[in-house]
Design goal:
Layout: E1 2-6, E2 12-14, E3 19-21, H1 23-31, E4 36-40, H2 48-62, H3 69-80, H4 84-98, H5 100-106, H6 109-113, H7 119-126, H8 129-134, H9 137-170
Parallel strand pairs: 1-4
Antiparallel strand pairs: 1-2, 2-3
Helix pairs in contact: 4-7
């Protein structure tokens, strides 16, 4: 693991090569698949995430915006509502799902394990005990049964639409 030190003058120092580096050099390390940690010299804190965020923000302001504004607003709201751990879990799963190397190495099993749009799974697993006290279990079961029933109806409707389209295609 490469240790990179950030000094108060905002310069980054690669301890492996004994040289100062730039953010572009950090991007090169990422492209090469090298593992690294960036530590603030004064506080001794790991600031890797902050530096990577700075790189992303710089790219966002100089080129095509990769991250939709609404998504950024949602991230801010997760921080404001002290639900950042839920967002972290969701983003980690999205990242793992979208990682092309893992996808090609592990095949289609990744697709079957993860639904990036299943927000409820993340929120239910991470919800506090106070949330559980607000809604009695019987109501939760009824709500979930109604939801499942509605989804099953939607699937049936889609199946019938597909069958109609296939019949029209044959004729």
């Amino acid at each position: 693991m490469i240790e990179i030190k950030k000094y108060s003058n905002r310069r980054l120092y690669n301890t492996e090569t004994s040289s100062y580096i730039t953010q572009e050099d950090i991007v090169s390390l990422i492209k090469q698949g090298k593992q690294f940690k960036i530590k603030d010299v004064e506080s001794k804190k790991d600031i890797t995430s902050s530096i990577l965020t700075q790189i992303v923000l710089e790219r966002e302001t100089t080129g095509t915006n990769l991250i939709p504004e609404e998504f950024l607003k949602q991230i801010i709201l997760f921080y404001e509502n002290d639900r950042s751990s839920e967002m972290f879990g969701f983003l980690s799963n999205v990242m793992n799902f979208a990682d092309a190397n893992k996808f090609f190495n592990n095949g289609f099993q990744n697709i079957m394990k993860f639904n990036p749009f299943d927000f409820q799974a993340y929120f239910n697993n991470n919800s506090s005990n106070n949330d559980a006290k607000e809604t009695p279990p019987a109501e939760n079961n009824t709500s979930k049964e109604n939801e499942i029933s509605e989804l099953a109806n939607q699937i049936d409707e889609l199946k019938s639409e597909i069958n109609k389209l296939n019949k029209e295609k044959v004729n």
